[in-house]
Amino acid sequence: MDKLDAMRTFVRVVESGSFSQAARDLNVSQPTVSKQLAALEARLGTQLLARNSRALTVTLAGQEYYEATVRILEDIESVEERVLEGQSSPSGLVRITLSPAFGRMYVIPKLLAFRDRFPDVSIEIEVSGRHVDLVEEGIDIAIRIGRLSDSALVARRIGDMRMITLASASYLARHGTPQTLDALQAHQRIGYVHQGHTVGWDFTVDGQQHTLEGGGAFRTNDAEHVRGAVLAGLGIAHHASWLFTDVLASGEVVRILDKHTPPLLPINAIIAGGRRMPSRVRQFIDFLADICAEEPELRSA
User: Fold this and answer.
1) Quick one: pLDDT band at residue 24, thresholds 50, 70, 90?
2) Residues of the chain with CATH 3.40.190.290
3) pLDDT at position 70, please?
4) Model confidence, pTM
């Protein structure tokens, strides 16, 4: 039994709460995970995990061993990073979760440049709009918008998101352009659904925030479907300006109600707190910050 491999496997099982998920994260078979954990328990002469058909729980001895093991593995990784940084570039896997549209439109087109600079760093992107548990799911970085409420997370502000109200030029030609929020409510509105709830539309009127119901004749939980609905002339949307940069420039889509544009929302790169940041993760966050800095609709004000 390789002691370090067994320790890493144990930590991943505890954090993911699942043998099968740990196997997927470590790219090994589930029997391999079970064999390593059994050998580790046999070597220590105690039960670390209590397992049954419905749940996996950590014993008192297992919790103590987990906490010590995390510290040991972080110390080893820290030493390795310091040595390697002096003689080679970062290496290893970076797992990131972000929204489908942001990844496709801004990250993937620039990813080759990152890979050319850091060829030993592998990237795994989980496309998701939900707020994942970074530790439990083994995610290094999450991109999140807006203010953060979880104090256990560490955030770096890499850009800003501008929410705008807009419609296709053809829609406005047929139905007219609303000049007030009251007039807006009489129009067809394209709603955005996040985590099962239709997101309200925030506006600033005389320095005060006003929120309109975001529902309408068409709703979707995917940003690119919002874009498609706008281009198809289905109605007016209130969404991120970066999603429409090209069609705004061409005049196919028109901004409206600009005098009521809400404040900017921060774009944050999130990592789990309480752990040292590997250089590969730090370099990828720098890469994401550079992407935002190069795009006027993502750049911090």
Assistant:
1) confident
2) 163-260
3) 83
4) 0.70
Mark residue 117 as left, alpha or beta (left: phi above 0; alpha: psi -120 to 50; beta: remaining): alpha
AA identity, residue 56: L
Residue 151 has pLDDT above 60, yes or no: no
- Report the interhelical angle of 19-26 vs 30-44 (nearest 10°): 110
Q: What is the pLDDT of residue 174?
A: 95
Its CATH class, for the domain covering 3-85, is mainly alpha
Mapped onto helix, strand or coil, the DSSP state of residue 20 is helix
Please give the residue that has the higher pLDDT: either 22 or 142: 142
CB count within 10 Å of CB 25 equals 21
Instruction: List the one residue out of 262, 165, 255, 263 whose CA is nearest residue 214.
Output: 165
Rounded distance between C-alpha atoms, residue 23 and residue 99, angstroms: 25
Integer Cα distance of 178 and 176 in angstroms: 6
Q: Which residues pair with 276 in a beta bridge?
A: none
For residue 189, count CB atoms less than 10 angstroms from its CB and return exposed for 0-12, middle for 13-18, buried for 19 or more: buried
**Residue count of the chain:** 301
The count of other CB atoms within 10 Å of the CB of residue 258 is: 9
What would be the CATH architecture of the domain defined by 163-260?
3-Layer(aba) Sandwich (3.40)
> Are residues 103 and 47 in contact, defined by beta-carbon separation less than 8 angstroms?
no
Residue 227 in this model has a pLDDT that exceeds 90:
yes
